[in-house]
Write a structure and sequence with these properties.
Layout lengths: L2 E6 L7 H13 L3 H9 L1 H4 L4 E12 L2 E10 L5 H11 L4 H5 L4 E9 L2 E15 H4 L10 E11 L10 E7 L7 H4 L8 H7 L2 E9 L6 E7 L2
Antiparallel strand pairs: 1-2, 2-3, 3-4, 4-5, 5-6, 6-7, 7-8, 8-9
Helix pairs in contact: 1-2
Amino acid sequence: HLLRFSYAFPGFRDDPGHDLARLRDLCAAFAEETAAHVDRIRPALEHPSVAQPLFGLAFDSPSSWRIKLYLQFVDDAGDTAIDVAGAILGRRDLSAVANGVPLHLVGLDLNENGLTGAKLYFLHRSMAVTDVGPLPALAGVTELCNLLVIHRMRTPDDAQVAEPAEIDFALAENNLLPDDVESFFAGEPYTQLLARFPIALRRISLALGDSGKANGYYVLTE
């Protein structure tokens, strides 16, 4: 994507109305239909189990873009997070997908046609790499902590939502350095970023299976 970012609202619980108005304005800047979707799910956004919303954007051109709206749940939301996500997505089977693992985030993909897909991020405090699924070697790491296992839902009745599609985790808390994972990003545009900016990778997400897809999340170091 030409432009991709996400923006959190860490003070959300102090003034939900203010932040939801900002969130709606951001969505309306691209299409009023996406703002209308924020209106439709406002009861879910205001639910006490939601710690904060996040606004994300994947943008290539005025005719090719996708808003990524996230709901991050409080740590002790328990089954309530599953209920809230299920109500948004029209799914009654998410408890079976969760299998007792807490739901940390639900991500909604929106464009002028409304909801086009979703992702569910389940938090595993500790998980053996061999239990994750088909995954490239990670510098001798045998166990991952605070691992987000991501399930994708492409249509309202997508049966594939039961199968994990990606994982996401922080490097430092898993004793990994940027050098240990830079091979996933060989070539452009990562080398251009390294040449032009002082950056350090902080998180990584990897697709399960043989697609080779990897996303890196970085910060400026000065």
